[in-house]
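Translate sequence into structure tokens.
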Amino acid sequence: MTTILIWRIRSFQYTFRTHHPKINYPYQPPLRQSSTASVTRINHNPLINPPSSTLPPPLVLPSRSPSQSTISYYFALGRAYLGFYKIGAKAVYTNFQESRVLINRLPPSLSIPDALKQGQLSRGEWQFIRRSRQDFAKVPLFALVFIVCGEFTPLVVFFLGGVVPRPCRIPKQIGSMREKAEERRQRSFRSGTLQSNRISPTIEALRHEELQHIGRSLGLYSKWWDRMFNGAPTALVRSRAQKRVEYLGLDDMAITRDGGVGRMEIEEVRIALEERGVDVLGKNDTVLNTQLRTWLNAGKFQPVTRLLVTRPSVWQEGNHRTN
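Result follows.
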């Protein structure tokens, strides 16, 4: 299975290249485009933003001419999706290889989190390593789906969103995943079982219902746990919530240190907000940037656990502002 996958990946014609102050990343287009959105120019700052090879490449779908047959059109459509997945799969493989080069540059005794804290890794590099590992771990199962389904993969991935590496996610899949996540989060907030003024500042002391809400809001466990058992095991959610809180602490520090929200690309802002349990659909760039700044400011005066169980509208920024 692994031999077949490597052979297919190596056969892909992948010619995009980019420049980074420390390493050459595989894919850095000047424009990002989807079939449903206008072209947005990227103002890439590699110190705080990971390379765009960690995001999906542009998906340009063919338009159907009046004289084109149905079979011919859908064949061309399938080839467009196939090309998209080939580029995304190549990006996953190349990113993983480049991330290993970046890791090998660090002293052997230094962990990746410590390297970030000490400034030997920028946020962009740290996120690049992190996403490359996560995406590469999804390759075997996604490769199986891709080999079996071929051009029909776009019809299948809507039901298997979690197994698809980020660079291989089509725009409609990303939108669908966000809609489902936000609907689940809203249902959890509407349950009315949380009292934010009594939230413990530590994950270890949180009650069962508070942990379940954080797990649903952040997508820390599958929705099937809710459907079958009305929630995941407390120990499982607590462990994953603790890891997320530790990650958010590192990311908050790195964002502030490496340029602030104003230097982040808007898609990076969306991803950061999603990781903090904040809805992003239907919000313009100004609102998204403001809410991430508010999170960073509020985190100086309130425990992260309280921010995770409340909406941005009730966060208190305190007397100081950043960025």
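Note: Residues 1-43, 317-323 have pLDDT under 50 and may be disordered.
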